[in-house]
Amino acid sequence: MSSTPLVRFEHPLNERTRTLLRLEHLFLQMEFHQGHDEAWDNRATVEALLAIAAVFARHDLKSELLKELDRHRGVLEQMALAPGVDSKRLRSVLEDLRSMSEALYRMDGQLDRQIRHNDLLKAVMHRSSIPGGACAFDLPQFHFWLQLPSAQRRHDLEYWQQRLRPVRAAITLLLTLIRSSGAPTTCLAREGLYQRSLDPQQPAPQILRLELPVEAGLFPEISGIRNRFSVRFLCFSRDERGLQTVEDVEFDLTLCNF
User: Fold this and answer.
1) Domain 182-256, second-level architecture
2) Phi and psi dihedrals of 247, rounded to 5?
3) Could you tell me which residues come within 8 angstroms of residue 34 by beta carbon, excluding any fewer than 6 positions away?
4) Residue 38, class by beta-carbon neighbours within 10 Å (0-12 exposed, 13-18 middle, 19+ buried)?
5) φ and ψ at 66, to 5 degrees?
6) Terminus-to-terminus CA distance in the chain, angstroms?
7) pLDDT tens digit string along 93-136?
8) Is the entire prediction scored with pTM above 0.85?
9) Domain edges within the chain
10) Is 256 helix (H, G, I), strand (E, B) or coil?
11) What residues contact 245, with CB distance under 8 A and at least 6 apart?
């Protein structure tokens, strides 16, 4: 592979991992804007917070996270006696998995309760489906909150996110374990197309990770199910849909199977 800067693409192969990646994206967006105290940053933080709550509403996230934490713990416990395993590191990860499971078990009611039971946030959520619906004349209450001292707004944002912290920690650990479970291999997409069938007797990948040089000017269109997937490399265009390249494309592929 080239030593020039690489761009990485990830594609989930099941719905649970898809949800984890979407939530990670929203948490990162929220945390970026929360690092700034301007009113526009606070708006963006609240928008990401409400998007997280919307994802929670469509999934039994607590149950899904507990199942995934237990699954990872079971797999790692089976590895404890395998030769060459870093037992100290393994014990640390198992302890993290146990503590995160316990933290989630202790949480009663909706994970986003502090968001959904807040009248200010409910008003913003109600108007957010309308383009520009959260502007000052539509939501004077929200506009007033944005004029409060930055310390007060920061305190409120911290409070609204309090119950999300165990969820954020669990998602971070699970995705770290998944991403670190595979090693990259160099592959070749003939005339921009790569197809692969997977051994149904082996654990199905959770995430496909692709890397290729930015200078290639290509991006992948990935489709896949449990035991097979295909990748088409398209030429990037700012103005129209990319066309599949007719050139052979060398790229790094990682199957994250954990």
Assistant:
1) Sandwich (2.60)
2) -90, 155
3) 41, 45, 154, 157
4) exposed
5) -65, -40
6) 25
7) 999 999 999 999 888 877 778 888 899 999 999 998 899 999 99
8) yes
9) 15-177, 182-256
10) strand
11) 191, 192, 218, 233, 234, 235
